[in-house]
Amino acid sequence: MACLVGPIVGTRWPAGKRGRSPVFIGGVAGAVFGLYPAAVVASVLGCQVHGLEGHPVEVQVDVSAGVPGFFLVGLATGSVREARERVRAAIRNSGLPFPLRRLTVNLAPAELRKEGSGLDLAIAVGVSLAALGRSSPPGTAFLGELALNGQVRHVDGVLVAARSLARHGVRDLFVAASDAAEAALVERLRVFAAPSLAAVVAHLGGEAPIPPYAGGPPRVEEGAVEHDLAEVGGQEAARRALEVAAAGRHHLLLCGPPGAGKTMLARCLPGLLPPMTLEEALELAEVRSVLGELPAGRPLDWTRPFRAPHHSISTAGLVGGGSRLAVPGEVSRATRGVLFLDELAEFQPVVLQALRQPLEEGRVVITRSGGPVTYPAHFQLVAATNLCPCGWTGDDRRPCRCTPGAVQAYQRALSGPITDRIDLQVTVPRTPPEVLGREASGEPSRTVRARVERARRVQLERQGVLNAGLRAADLRRWAPLRPAARAALERWAEARGLTGRGFHRAWRVARTLADLDGGGPIGEEHVLEALGYRLLERAA
Amino acid sequence: MGARRPTPYGEAVAERLAMDLVRAGVVVVSGLALGIDAAAHEGALAGGGLTVAVLGTGIDVVYPAANAGLAARILAAGGTLLSQFPDGTPPRRGNFPRRNWTMAALSDLVVVVEAAEGSGALITADAALSLNRTVMAVPGSVFSALSVGCHQLLRDGAGLVQNARDVLAELQSPSAVLDDPMRLPEGAAAAPAGGGLLRHLSDVHPVDPGELARRLGLPLPEVLARLTRLELEGAVRRGGGGYLRVQRRTRGCGMHGAGAG
Fold first, then answer.
1. Which residues from B are below 8 Å from A403, CB to CB?
2. Closest partner residue to B241 among A235, A256, A513, by Cβ?
3. Which residue in A has a C-alpha nearest to residue B66's C-alpha?
4. In chain B, whose CA is at the least distance from the CA of A441?
5. Radius of gyration for chain A, computed over Cα atoms and rounded to the nearest angstrom
6. Does B229 touch chain A (CB under 8 A)?
7. Residues B187-243: pLDDT tens digits?
8. Pick from A236, A396, A403: which is nearest to B213 by CB?
9. What's the burial of A33, exposed, middle or buried (CB within 10 Å: 0-12/13-18/19+)?
10. Which residues of chain B make contact with A407, given a CB cutoff of 8 A?
């Protein structure tokens, strides 16, 4: 890089001579082109996060003769434009030279819209390096917001950015100290916890090296079981349904009067699922990273998420949304865990409609003016509902006071596209006090989970997916029915006028029941039990 | 007359009673409402008899709409739809008690099947009494809130209805065509496998499969499988959050194997 010393100025850069007016110098320098460093270009890597994708951004800094000014180009939106002020103040307050010349910063690629404050550090490093006439080492990227005193602050989405930067060949990444653990989750990446801009520049100059962050690669741990099935009294049918749901990854509907313990049962499901794999934990961490919800220092959470949004939630809140670029919603926060919808009939129909794509594909694509983004939504749905608006149907303590029309309307609201996709439906009666009083006889979650894991292994070895993901053709191939089982299923379908979808649902559940029994062909007892987990068929 | 949301027991009684009464030549008058009314009309049709539906709306407005099919079948079977209100009168709260007076006035005898305390059926029974009509009531389970009204009527001197014979005696037309109302539920005999299970089921109160498993000391999967088998055979059905014994062939369930009622 050209670093000619202009004879007119007499020093390397006019930065230290803030008192002198560079305008006159610039005027002369412009005339004596070549004597003065005509164009100093530094290039530094940053990253722009777009949904769950990070795009490398090359920050090009050009210092040229001309009227002093700081121009930021390259589709920088409002929040990035503000970086100019932060960068200027941070550089000055760090005791670094700020070129009092025509400063042009280009954020390439220029067609990519830049947002947020994550490019602050990269811009400031670029300007400082250009001012010092140095270049950025290759394969190094910078990520962080700047405080006016030069400190590096947290930004959201560090994990997402770090993963894609690593894919693009970046080896060294500088982030805020609070983000170092998050960035260090990415293997093959050297992470430097940068306390301040001055420290980063000193490190790059070789004056005061920052030691790489010593976090080590992430280790797989086992999440805590927050709600144990042993605490549930009675509820044999619901317990069994939970086990089956966990084993085959079936969605589950719990019907029953208020106070029957539907929420408690739902909360037990995460503890019945196998421990998260690293890939699953990272997927969840990425969503939380974009939302800025990762705790500093301990970025990976090994407990499966349990999300229970209130029924007044909007579509954007549930599946994700936002004005320009969608942020993840509850379905993505619940990825690899459980999404619990209590009072299912109270949710707005359009909100429930929006669940169709995530339920079918395990991901959600949301398009806003900033373009489409894809978030994972690999959740297991547990829905709960009363049987009528007042909730007392099925409870002998109080009569139900609902009009017949109201009950019909309520059940019609329930039997929609969502319950259509729920394989398992059970009633949850109020547990009689004499059962509650007895000492807990239920199995602990750990025992049930061992059976679940065994059944899941059987499924994955046989067909590569869990039973809930089996389509009709797969069922014929992987879920052979014994003659008696087929006869029972067909007889039921004929008597009840089962739709094809209902038929396959019962078949899938029977497959899981047989897998809990060791994975042999499906017997009549499996089909009969599976048909016991259907409630809303007739309403459809 | 009776509750619009009866228990399965009440529905079965109304249907059975109406069927047996029309076979004895009685015309069944009811209000085409959901629940007991509809069951009574259905029973009368199943018995091959005549039935009169007294509407609380204009004659051209079928309310509730769910009973449109029933209204058509009543007409097809030679029955009558009747209304005191002008054509096009929509359902109005105040019209139904007036309709009930008409029903009482048209009838020789009023049978109340399942009425909660203070319900419309009780008000109509009072109207019938003031029109000098005989009022009879079907007793129900003492655990059910829907029995309170009927039991109150019985306490106040209404005639007790156990079967159609009681009603016919009151109408002074003894009959010999009646089925034995005390016989076993159909399907019970045909399903020895579920015998032990059926004994623990009620035809009024839904029983949760979990509770059944607890009582029988059987694993839940087995209980569920056996219940489904019984359901396929038409001996039990689901309702109100649990399983019920089927007293007799119930409308709309459409399970084959239930036998011809």
1. 4-5
2. A256
3. A405
4. B214
5. 30
6. yes
7. 333 334 445 777 777 777 778 888 888 878 888 888 898 888 888 888 888 877 788
8. A236
9. exposed
10. 5
Chain A residue numbers with beta carbons less than 8 Å from the beta carbon of B232 are 488, 491-492, 495
Query: Contact, B20 vs B179, CB < 8 A?
Result: yes
Q: Is B143 on the interface with A (CB under 8 A)?
A: yes
Residue type at position B238: R
Which residue type sits at B63?
A: Y
Reference B169, options B111, B122, B87; nearest CA is B111
- The one-letter amino acid at A369: S
Q: Is there a single domain that holds both residue B104 and residue B172?
A: yes
For each of the domains in chain A, give its residue range(s) and CATH number, in order of start.
2-33 (no CATH), 40-204 (3.30.230.10), 229-466 (3.40.50.300), 470-540 (no CATH)
Q: How far is CA B57 from CA A222, B60, B81, B85, in A?
A: 66, 8, 11, 6
In single-letter form, the type of residue at position A204 comes to L
CB neighbour class for A526 (10 Å; exposed up to 12, middle 13-18, buried from 19): buried
* pLDDT (tens digit per residue) in A87-123: 999 999 999 988 888 999 999 898 888 888 899 999 9
* B249–chain A Cβ distance below 8 A for any pair: no
- How many independent structural domains does chain B possess? 2
pTM: 0.72
Segments forming the whole domain that contains residue B166: 8-182+251-256
Q: Residues with Cβ < 8 Å from B220, sequence gap 6 or more?
A: A236, A237, A239, A240, B209, B210, B213
Whether B201 and B85 share a structural domain: no
A145, A292 contact by CB (below 8 A):
no
Residue B109 inside a domain? The answer is yes
Task: State the complex-level ipTM.
Answer: 0.73
* Residue of B224, B238, B253, B255 to mutate for A, most A C-beta atoms under 10 A: B224
